[in-house]
TrEMBL record:
Stretch forming the signal peptide: none
Alphabetized InterPro entries for the sequence: RAYT_transposase, Transposase_17, Transposase_17_sf
Residues of the Transposase IS200-like domain: 15-127
Protein's UniProt name: Transposase
Organism listed in the record: Amphritea pacifica
Length: 148
């Protein structure tokens, strides 16, 4: 199914008020976010989307993003597309690049009522530790959660 990520979303719909765990990766898994400024662009882009969604938790890893988000208005696809589009333009501008920043598509998981949001957020923000990038969350700047 390589190269056919839009087929994964065929027949799926998103609901306003539902919470989703979304993961999306950089083009060719390029570790763009070793550059702290590029990571901050993604964070700013999340904050820009407040009419579409509320960010509950996130971590910006060197080559991908985990985003726990509550959908406010529109579709999840629209929110992710807006985030990726806006951040790509700004990252390209910062780096003097042109071209793709993000791989097409994204993976999402709709959170069920019985799932523990704080546990999911904890899992998200612990990614840099599990990846061996840092020993403590305090050492990694590109994460946040509303529970902290």
């Amino acid at each position: 199914m390589k190269g056919n990520s839009s087929a994964l979303r065929k027949g799926r719909f998103s609901e306003s008020g539902r919470i989703y765990l979304v993961t999306f990766v950089t083009h060719q898994r390029t570790p763009i976010f070793h550059d702290f400024g590029c990571g901050r662009i993604v964070v700013s882009s999340m904050r820009f989307l407040t009419t579409l969604s509320d960010t509950l938790a996130y971590v910006i890893m060197p080559d991908h993003v985990h985003w726990l988000v509550e959908l406010r208005d529109g579709s999840l696809e629209r929110s992710v597309h807006s985030l990726k589009s806006f951040s790509a333009k700004e990252i390209n501008k910062k780096l003097g690049w042109s071209g793709h920043i993000w791989q097409k598509g994204f993976h999402d998981h709709a959170i069920r009522d019985e799932e523990d949001l704080t546990e999911i957020a904890r899992y998200i923000v612990m990614n840099p530790i599990r990846a061996g990038l840092v020993k403590s969350c305090r050492e990694y700047a590109l994460w946040d959660a509303v529970w902290v």
